[in-house]
Design brief:
It is elongated and about 65 Å long. α1 runs antiparallel to α2, α2 packs across α4 and α3 runs antiparallel to α4. By secondary structure, the protein is an all-alpha fold.
């Protein structure tokens, strides 16, 4: 510990410690994302991740690691969460600046699928068919 300020240096501070500091103010679902992110970080690093481990190159490699492990929507969520955690570290004066590039530079832009809607006549035909679950048909 730094004896003057009582704070740990970035070398010693883990991502888990930063999460723990801010977790009391977060929703249960956010805490679940935090823990899943830490699990993936630990798998990627082979140890608990400290602030000094994280650089731009680290973030790029971690994004590639996630792309091979989880769905693209989860990759985006985890990277957004990591970015937020690093912003907390900047705010808490643990690091000078956030080393992580913007998430949009780390994952490819995905196009949403084009939706095809049923026509009025198709809806009428569908509504006239027998259905074992009346609640499903109620929307018609």
């Amino acid at each position: 510990m730094n004896t003057k300020s009582g704070k740990k240096s970035a070398v010693q501070v883990t991502i888990a410690e930063i999460v723990a500091i801010h977790e009391a103010k977060q929703r249960h679902s956010t805490c679940g994302v935090n823990h899943a992110l830490m699990h993936h970080l630990d798998q990627f690093c082979g140890k608990q991740t400290t602030l000094c481990d994280i650089s731009e190159r680290f973030c790029i490699a971690f994004a590639e690691f996630l792309k091979a492990k989880v769905a693209m929507s989860s990759v985006k969520t985890y990277l957004q969460k990591l970015h937020a955690i690093l912003e907390h570290a900047v705010f808490d004066h643990l690091i000078d600046c956030n080393p992580m590039p913007a998430v949009r530079f780390l994952i490819p832009r995905t196009r949403s699928s084009q939706r095809v809607y049923l026509t009025q006549s198709e809806l009428v035909r569908l509504a006239s068919k027998p259905c074992n679950h009346e609640e499903t048909k109620r929307a018609f």
